[in-house]
Amino acid sequence: MIKRRVHFFKNDEDDYGHPIEFRSYLIMSRKAEQGESANLTDGRAKVYTLSHGALPLSPEYVVAEGGAENAMALAIERLKILNDGFNHRILDNE
Fold first, then answer.
1. Does 94 score more than 60 pLDDT?
2. Is 66 left (phi over 0), alpha (psi -120 to 50) or beta?
3. What is residue 57's predicted lDDT score, i.e. its pLDDT?
4. What Å distances lie between residue 1 and 4, 9, 49, 56, 77, CA to CA?
5. Do the beta carbons of residue 89 and residue 60 sit within 8 Å?
6. Is the pLDDT confidence value at 36 over 80?
7. Exposed (0-12), middle (13-18) or buried (19+): which is 54, by Cβ within 10 Å?
8. Per-domain residue ranges of the chain
9. CB atoms within 10 A of CB 77
10. Regarding predicted confidence, which is higher, 21 or 13?
């Protein structure tokens, strides 16, 4: 399983130097399992909102050919579109 946190933010900061507009997500990606609406060679990524004001991805999961890394990349691309106009940072979770 692959886990990444993705933060979206605007450059405007408050008095403490924190972004005024901030959206945080957790993406967990893995190989598809039998019985899911995907081929066994596909990847499946689920997106969780972690901050107030973070727009949910709809549907909350992404399926992509080629495994977990491709599903992760597709989920990140969809979040970039959803959060257009924001800067972003991607953090690997251990």
1. no
2. left
3. 92
4. 10, 26, 18, 21, 19
5. no
6. no
7. buried
8. 2-92
9. 12
10. 21
Per-residue pLDDT tens for 44-84?
A: 999 999 999 999 999 888 999 999 999 999 999 999 999 99
- For residue 93 the two structure tokens come to 């979770």
Q: Which two tokens stand for residue 94?
A: 């251990």
Coil, helix or strand at residue 44: strand
Q: Three-state DSSP class for 77?
A: helix
What amino acid occupies position 8? Answer: F
**Cα dihedral 60, 55, 66, 69 sign:** negative
